[in-house]
């Protein structure tokens, strides 16, 4: 599955068909766009910048079936500039939301929410609860699909932390924090609610060169 056409369309391809098919679109001029998609428990889920969650059933031989669960259409939306979906190994579907605070010392905020599809509900996980919800795992989000890794297998990682890259979206208007100096690769500690740089010694200079969209690289097996 891929998000394309200025993030207004979602298309998919299967090995059986060997071609791309359109799965869902967002109406031009609505102001919304797709933020992320993930495969979870046999279904694809998409999330828009307005917080609309869609479940796509692609097994229909004619047209994909779409079910909309909830939306966060409220005054907070203009402050949200990044959203991610995470499918955990233990079966939870999580949403990570980056937003910009106004008139506060800490200008940026990360919220971790659990998506309860069965109850059509979004539950915000606060501080220690959010840290415990990761069950000794670390989350990676960015331009690729999200990854949830166990600390016992990767001792170099920090538990209950979100590792993230800060992509340049459609334009700077959609990513105001870039102008405020927040860019590159970072870590958010859910327990202490603190943002940190992954490469502090670089003083963020590495992210001033093109390309400005940093990504995680997943090596092939055997490398």
Automatic annotation (TrEMBL):
<feature type="domain" description="KIB1-4 beta-propeller">
    <location>
        <begin position="1"/>
        <end position="189"/>
    </location>
</feature>
<dbReference type="Pfam" id="PF03478">
    <property type="entry name" value="Beta-prop_KIB1-4"/>
</dbReference>
<protein>
    <recommendedName>
        <fullName>KIB1-4 beta-propeller domain-containing protein</fullName>
    </recommendedName>
</protein>
<dbReference type="InterPro" id="IPR005174">
    <property type="entry name" value="KIB1-4_b-propeller"/>
</dbReference>
